[in-house]
Amino acid sequence: MRGGLAAAATGFLAPKPSLALDAAGSLAGAVTQAVGGPLISFAPVTIAQHAAQSDGGKVPVISSDYQYQVLIPWGTPIQPGGPAYNGNPDKRPTAAEQELQVGIGHDGMAFFGDGDDDLSSTAGMLCVNHEFGRNTHLIGKTAPESLEDVRLSQAAHGASVVRIERDSDGAWQVAASPDSRRITANTPMAFSGPAAGSAFLENAAGNEPRGTMANCGSGTTPWGTYLTCEENFNDYFGWTDPDFVPSKSQARYGFDADGAGYGWHSFDERFDLGNPDYANEHNRFGWIVEIDPRDGARKPVKRTALGRFKHEAIAINVGPSGRIACYMGDDQVFDYCYKFVSRLPYKLAQRLGRSPLDEGTLYVARFNDDGTGRWLELSRRNPLLRDAFGSEAELLVNTRLAADIVGATPMDRPEWTTIGQNNMVYWTLTNNVERTEPNAANPETPNNDGHIIRTSDSAVSSRSFRWDIYLIASSTRGTEGVFSDPDAALADPFGRLFVATDGGQQDGLQNQLIVFDLTAEKPTPNRLFTGVAHDELTGCTASPDCRTIWVNVQHPGSGDPAATNFPAPTDGLTVPRDCTVVITKKDGGIIGS
Ligand code: FEO
Ligand code: CA
Ligand code: CA
Question: pTM of the prediction?
């Protein structure tokens, strides 16, 4: 088995006990049976320590048992010796320079260690998403004034694949590699799966598919590739024709005349929704994209069988038969939780020259109030959908519309998924200030602070599941472990859960990386690291030996040098830059211990 933590798990863990629900139907009993004893002994960052050390949010704070190093801030050359951007507010990179540099908006991320089993913890390829950079931060203007400005913005979005190595002093550096590369909003892309080649993805202009953007969370496959998830793609489109009226589908995906103000559509016709030559360009976004971190020449592939929505992240579980289940959230208020199950065991599919991500069944979740749930099929085999769509391609391009029809449960913004002990899937639900009607799976009205839910399938392919709420974040208010707005999530092979937050935290705290012991009786948040003013902490990935963890600091200061200059020393002038933070324990121990 290849791929980071999953690979490590096979080396460290006894066989997983089978899941057993306790009499009350809670999933918690099964967890505590899996591993005994406390997994966390580090000194958490206290509220008082944070207040004393954060300098008003100008610098991060870390547990006294840990240390951190900054790696690959926005503008770092992808290859050593390339052009660099250092945060000078008077000299931004050109678009051509940005094509050769680490992008902005660091989010989902995965480390692929060297070696046949990906098991090196000292050298490998780091894949990092570049979700977004607001115009004032990235181009230094409120709106682009030229195609060059748009090209700079587009070149800073997408993803980076960058080789990193740990030196003899324990510090990580960027190293040269032919496989290091930038993938941007203009990189040629391939499509696969049922919607590939369909009219829904073709334009009258005949332009080849290019680009990925709004790359939020991520996942890895058991075969050692990286999955990047296109989330708020609607933000980059707009229209210039005042008479243009969006379709029902376009409205459901949230397109509007000015998007989120990036202004790409003002200079690049591809992003003008009202331009009939590019009428289907928007359908080319909202997918999960597979990237091979070890083949810089291989086109990224958009896997249409996984559905089109505002993909946050993906977590894959491998069943005993070798079939895979992919768990995915759609991050919008009142949107849904999804599962894709491969038709074939993944190794068999690969022997036959097919991708396990191209053939299978997509489902959406209904959470019943009694702790049970159903995976509702999203295909034309489902009688509810047979007449609503003319083809599987049409259905997949309009996944949200199909999910509306079958009666999925509207959730409180599903963000990341990760697979913990006993194959339980943890789903972060970040918040939903618009909720007025509660249900058992989304009980807070409004849900200001978010919660974490977990699901358990009896088998990879099962259509029924059990679920319970792991933690309601508002219950931590008034305690030392207070946190809100859970977003990125990473379960380790031992029973720890890392959660990174995105939202206004209580008690003067900045966004935080917290650790839970899933084997403990009750969830207790342990604060490992806090970011800087106006940032969010995003994707995390761990080395195979679990002694290094990387976490991303996104939009520090919202780009305002008066708020913070991180990662540069505080000078009030240098533009703060999104970056990766490498965290290790001072005694060299397992991260989170
Ligand atoms: Fe890009 Fe849902 O966070
Ligand atoms: Ca997120
Ligand atoms: Ca978020």
Answer: 0.94
